[in-house]
Amino acid sequence: MSLIPDGLHYTKEHEWVSEISANVFRMGITDYAQGALGDIVYVQLPKVGESVIADRVCGEVESTKSVSEIFAPVTGKIVAVNESLGQAPETVNSEPYGSGWLADIEVESAPTGLLSPEQYRQITA
Q: pLDDT tens digit string along 45-54?
């Protein structure tokens, strides 16, 4: 069973998002997603300053099994990326909700269409 922490919001594409400051959201992939992918060997992140649109591709995660697209959970501008994943992409496997985060996105308005932990648990059951 995958870990699905309370206090986060989720997407149907298996990304999570958390508000870390006013209008800035941190994103990553869920424990369910990293488990399905297997050993992650490379992460292609969006660039700082790049605009992303909710539900559109903004990067890729490559594992020993496959390559999977990363979808932006919210619309906004990338203000930070987790550069340590360049040297240690496997951190996404070991700490998907901690030091395995992917990017921070500054939004202009409150995001909509995200799933609660309970809703996400239902789609991964």
A: 999 999 999 9
For residues 33 and 111, give the distance between their C-alpha atoms in angstroms, rounded to a whole number. 22
Show contacts of 79-88: CB within 8 Å, 24+ apart: 79/24, 79/48, 79/104, 79/105, 79/106, 80/48, 80/104, 81/45, 81/46, 81/47, 81/48, 82/45, 85/43, 85/45, 86/43
Q: Which CATH number fits domain 9-108: 3.10.350.10, 2.40.50.100, 2.60.40.1120, 3.40.640.10?
A: 2.40.50.100
Q: What percent of the chain has pLDDT over 70?
A: 99
What is the model's pTM? 0.95
